[in-house]
């Protein structure tokens, strides 16, 4: 892929994400860029987003509470390039079973509908960022 094509695709993704964020803001919702994923909407979210990071978490999970703000920061940093979603593990058991998630936090990386990476545990922002860059073939 040439650099020009890559730049055009990135710009298209950014524009798509900007429109999504504007729509959220217009509805009076907080425009963090983070989507809520459930057992019911998961297939739609995967289909609608080329690059998707899903943070599987639970309210009672201490490490999840540490990773949550990092995921929110990365959602802003990669807006328009990667869609970031959060999935409450307790409320969505079918999704947890489907992806054999037995420990949280677990991050799932999907590219064009296929899982291309997984990271379980509480990691620093730089480690998660490196996984994002690698999973989605982004420039560092």
Helix/strand layout:
Blueprint: H1 3-26, E1 34-36, H2 42-48, E2 51-57, H3 62-77, E3 83-88, H4 93-98, E4 106-111, E5 114-120, H5 125-135
Parallel strand pairs: 1-3, 2-3
Antiparallel strand pairs: 2-4, 4-5
Short précis:
The protein is α/β, with parallel strands linked by helices.
H/E element sequence: HEHEHEHEEH
Class of secondary structure makeup: alpha/beta
Q: Return the domain count.
A: 1
Overall residue-averaged pLDDT value: 87
Physical arrangement of strands within the biggest beta sheet: 1-3-2-4-5
Strand count, sense and closure of the main sheet?
5 strands, mixed
CATH architecture: 3-Layer(aba) Sandwich
CATH topology: Glutaredoxin
CA distance, first residue to last residue: 17 Å
Estimate the strand proportion: 15-25%
Helix content: 40-55%
Would you write up a description of this structure?
46% of the residues lie in helices and 21% in strands. With 140 residues, it is α/β, with parallel strands linked by helices. The protein has one domain: Glutaredoxin (3-Layer(aba) Sandwich). A 5-stranded mixed β-sheet has the order 1-3-2-4-5, with helices on one face. The longest helix is centred in the N-terminal third of the chain and has 24 residues, at 3-26.
